[in-house]
Specification:
The chain has helices at 45-52, 78-84, 90-97, 107-116, 129-141, 157-169, 187-202, 238-241, 244-251; strands at 7-16, 19-29, 35-38, 68-70, 85-89, 175-179, 206-211, 223-228, 231-237, 256-260, 263-267. The chain is α/β, with parallel strands linked by helices. The chain is globular, with a radius of gyration of 19 Å. The termini are far apart.
Length: 268
């Protein structure tokens, strides 16, 4: 049986305040096809990810095929979908760090909340021994077991970001979506974070990286989708898409590009 793509868009359009944020977007991300979605601010990167997580909807045209399919289906129970797609984003980071009405969130509770689709609140759910073991395994997987009892508001940005990865992995998802994941990290913390993601990719989880930082695209990511004003400017193998000419055209300024040890570095 042929495995369905993680995400499949067919002429997908999203309109906000009268503006086409995504304009007839067509692309597919297949299982095991580690992909970076790149483009300047306003290119439509986050909206594309919101289609994947069903936080936003594309325009529906009567009689036309579904504009968005996730794992082959256009309809999903959101909680079931969250168990198959792990999300790491700055927005989620900020919400967890800010805590809730019951107080600051510990690393373990933040990870456990991934099993329930909540944001750290475990007041009204039953947490079993098996669930705590899954959380412990996820923390160990990202070398963060020592952070289980520490609250997120007392963690460094790098430590908290590891907790988010563990939270995303606790359901053993098929895909891990990283939306501008290194925001706020210093150089050392960012490299440790990227190393952790590389290990997860090598273990078989499909990685979808959303970024405007070319240097964050890991060597293990072989495919790049370049967005420009809601459209696909280019999509394909990394070496074919990441060229000075393509980037200069999309970013609207001359850009020099270098490659070293599988990483690409861009400079305006």
């Amino acid at each position: 049986m042929t495995e369905h793509p993680v995400l499949e868009l067919v002429d997908a359009t999203v309109v906000k305040d009268g503006v086409r944020v995504l304009d007839g977007l067509t692309l597919a991300i297949r299982a095991g096809e580690h992909t970076a979605i790149v483009g300047p601010n306003g290119a439509g990167k986050t909206t594309l990810i919101n289609l994947l997580t069903h936080d936003e909807r594309a325009l529906a045209c009567p009689g036309a095929p579904p504009a968005v399919r996730v794992f082959g289906s256009e309809r999903w129970n959101v909680f079931e979908l969250r168990s198959r797609i792990g999300i790491v984003s700055t927005d989620l980071h900020q919400r967890l760090v800010s805590g809730n009405s019951f107080g600051p969130v510990t690393g373990e509770d933040a990870v456990l909340s991934g099993l329930f689709g909540t944001r750290g609140v475990l007041k009204y759910v039953t947490v079993t021994t098996a669930m705590r073991q899954r959380a412990a395994d996820a923390l160990a997987r990202v070398e963060a077991a020592h952070l289980a009892s520490k609250t997120l508001d007392r963690m460094s940005t790098g430590e908290a970001r590891r907790i988010l990865i563990a939270r995303a992995l606790v359901t053993e998802p098929q895909a891990l979506v990283l939306d501008e994941p290194s925001a706020g990290l210093d150089l050392v913390a960012r490299q440790r974070f990227l190393d952790a993601i590389a290990r997860i990719a090598d273990e078989g989880t499909t990685i979808v990286l959303v970024t405007h930082h070319i240097e964050e695209i890991l060597p293990t990511i072989g495919r790049v989708v370049l967005l420009d004003r809601g459209r696909v400017a280019a999509a394909g193998p990394k070496h074919a898409v990441l060229t000075a000419a393509r980037l200069s055209a999309v970013y609207g300024a001359p850009i020099a590009l270098q490659e070293a040890r599988g990483y690409y570095y861009a400079q305006a």
